From TrEMBL:
Coiled coil: none annotated. Residues 6-243 form the ABC transporter domain. This is L-arabinose transport ATP-binding protein AraG (TC 3.A.1.2.2). It is found in: Cell membrane. The chain holds residues 1 to 248 of 506 of the full protein. It comes from the Bacteria.
Length: 248
């Protein structure tokens, strides 16, 4: 078995007039927290959208191997089915629905032809416990702060048996406490075998959680750094991101 849960090889993705990804190689080890960094427009989100099937097979070139198998995802559903779940900065929850409805939206728990709401609430509580949220699942999502909504999204990912959790700038809209809480949770999920790709601009945060760091610049993979093996500092990461030395 490969030590990598994910291997993306020679990924190229173009939009009219833009080469968003240029022959990118990106590999993630099983059970690690892998941070993906780069300046705005460097291709981070596009790479994750290729991975999750937002851009289906045929709309990019290159190869994706997940969990030992070549994959040609045609949709987000395809990638979720094998355990890849992305949480975007714009949360995908429905504010007017309750927490439990949101968690099981699209993969409802059925008894015969009907949704088993009692069981749904019981399981929602279990999922909330896993993300350390001690709140009533019958609350509406709109009544929660952003930090809690983020955790509900992760609870939803866990209810789908996520193997690879992708977080695209999850702390951008969070305050310091909520950010810290989220990073702590990611580390705990890792202990339970969930691999995580974290996109973040906050290099302090990156350095505090990362096992590996991949840097993209202008759609190209510039470097892949491993904690404990490569020398890593904010300055080193910035140098790779912008392609030159930075004055202190
Ligand atoms: P990042 O997430 O690193 O900020 P993106 O992956 O969003 O970067 O974007 C990479 C490049 O691709 C940018 O030049 C961006 O303008 C372009 N791009 C991204 N999405 C689209 C799109 N849907 N249509 C056209 N160009 C896009
Ligand atoms: Mg982005």
């Amino acid at each position: 078995m490969s030590e990598y849960i994910l291997e993306m090889k020679n990924i190229t993705k173009t939009f009219p007039g833009v080469k968003a990804l240029d022959n990118v190689d990106f590999r993630v080890k099983k059970g690690e927290i892998h941070c993906l960094v780069g300046e705005n427009g460097s291709g981070k989100s596009t790479l994750m959208k290729v991975l999750s099937g937002v851009y289906p097979f045929g709309e990019y070139s290159g190869e994706i191997i997940f969990d030992g198998k070549p994959q040609k995802f045609k949709s987000i559903n395809d990638s979720e089915r094998v355990g890849i779940v992305t949480i975007y900065q714009e949360l995908a929850l429905i504010p007017e629905l309750t927490i439990y409805e949101n968690i099981f939206l699209g993969h409802e728990i059925k008894k015969g032809n009907f949704i088993d709401w009692n069981e749904t609430i019981v399981r929602a509580k279990k999922m909330l416990k896993k993300v350390k949220l001690d709140i009533n699942p019958t609350l509406k999502v709109k009544d929660l702060g952003v930090g809690m909504q983020q955790l509900v999204e992760i609870a939803k990912a866990l209810s789908k048996n996520v193997k690879l959790l992708i977080l695209d700038e999850p702390t951008a809209a969070l305050n310091e406490d909520d950010s810290e809480n989220l990073l702590k949770l990611i580390k705990e999920l890792k202990e339970h075998g969930v691999t995580c790709i974290l996109i973040s601009h906050k290099l302090k945060e990156v350095i505090s959680v990362a096992d590996s760091i991949t840097v993209l610049r202008d759609g190209k993979m510039i470097s892949s750094l491993e904690v404990g093996k490569d020398e890593i500092s904010e300055n080193i990461i910035i140098k790779h991101m912008v392609g030159r030395e930075i004055e202190d």
